[in-house]
Amino acid sequence: MVMVEGEHMESIRVLIADDHPLFRDGMHGLLDSVPDTEVVSEATSGAMVISQAADLQPDVILMDIQMPGVNGIEATRTIVHTSPHIGVLVVTMYEDDDLVFSAMRAGARGYILKGANQTEVLRAIRAVANGEVIFGPTIARRVMSFLSAPRPATPVRLFPQLTERETEVLSFITQGRTNEEIAQQLVLSLKTIRNHVSNIFSKLQVADRAQAVILARDAGLHHHLQSDHS
Question: How far apart are CA 56 and CA 191, in angstroms?
Fold first, then answer.
């Protein structure tokens, strides 16, 4: 993972998991061209990436979804369960809602399309290495559309364990806002927002922002807040 100590910077150790050699070669060339990333290995199947992740402990895995044997979703679930510090960034040609949320539920920290430009790919890798959750622009729009779409009438499960402020912060998290953006919006210090986020994760028993988004969506938080402000 990238860490700055004085002027020293460690490379982000990346494992590329994809069964298409042209994609692996192109991604390997891109990562070799910048100083802060290092390709530690390549995997061509789900079983192989699970094994290599356990042995090599990379910072980030670029995960394809459709691979021989174990698919990328199941591989992600297994890897994150045994090595939660490894950041999985799904890089795929598929952009449907079910796959996006299946990847999030499995523990992926990011989801971008294979058509993404080099700048976007590198930005996503660095974000995931730093523990952030990131989506490519196209996927982010789909996620927001999915979160705000009308849902069937079901009993709304709210979060009484959260304070009013924590619920407000959670609503911003579901919108894909960073801690810095939330702090600016609520006119609070970044440290205060980080404390709220930590409390939210602890009270909801989730590990990261992706799991919090899924839980909030399933509980209908977005629509409850809309109805409260209508």
Answer: 34
